[in-house]
Amino acid sequence: AQSVTQLDSQVPVFEEAPVELRCNYSSSVSVYLFWYVQYPNQGLQLLLKYLSGSTLVKGINGFEAEFNKSQTSFHLRKPSVHISDTAEYFCAVSPNNAGNMLTFGGGTRLMVKP
Amino acid sequence: DTGVSQNPRHKITKRGQNVTFRCDPISEHNRLYWYRQTLGQGPEFLTYFQNEAQLEKSRLLSDRFSAERPKGSFSTLEIQRTEQGDSAMYLCASSRQGAPNEKLFFGSGTQLSVL
């Protein structure tokens, strides 16, 4: 069984400040990890994914995440956020590298303030 | 735009009624998925098709729920005898098996409200 915990339901941050959205997972099998973003009235969009190899993964819109096996974490970071980054962010785990049958966390609402 | 299309966007129904949602995936995608998202929660996997074959069903998918993909293109999700607990956003996604960088593309969802 797999599960994902996103520790913060909301993260307020000022524009141009750095941000970290936390994600911890639990799995009894190999994991493939994903971050999705959901803008208001839009479908979920893949930000980045970790399948294997380098533990630091870079994604779209300047986001990156680091896979830490010992901490069972996959935190998402951005060094400088913009107003347009305001959205809901979901961490997810999949039992396969195709990223289907995803198990999502509860989401973190990032609120960027001017 | 040839993204994943879901209809209707919103559906309000009375408890006990049947409802059906439609999903049109991206045309070359042979895999199709249904997820359910309740307020304040992440999406939960419901079921998955590869072409017309339904390969996985979550235990969340009770007997009142049925999904079809008759020709391996569009899919329908039907809920019979709706209950207030069925109120949620129903999300559809699609992907192309074997694509070098296979990933899911999600639709905007159908918001169901059961009164």
The count of helical stretches of chain B stands at 0
Major sheet size, sense and barrel closure of chain B: 7 strands, mixed
Taken as a percent bin, the fraction of beta residues of chain B is over 45%
The averaged pLDDT of chain B comes out at 93
Low-confidence stretches of chain B: none
Helix-and-strand structural type of chain A = mainly beta
What level of helicity do the residues of chain B show? under 10%
The helix fraction of chain A, in percent, is under 10%
Global Rg of chain B: 14 Å
From the alpha-carbon coordinates, what is the Rg of chain A to the nearest angstrom? Answer: 13 Å
Write structural notes for this entry.
The complex is a heterodimer of chains A (114) and B (115). Chain A is mainly beta and 114 residues long. Chain A has no helices and twelve strands. The N and C termini of chain A lie far apart (41 Å). With 115 residues, chain B is mainly beta. In chain B, strands 2, 4, 5, 6, 9, 10 and 11 form a seven-stranded mixed beta sheet that branches. At the A-B interface, strand 6 and strand 11 of A face strand 4, strand 5, strand 9 and strand 10 of B.
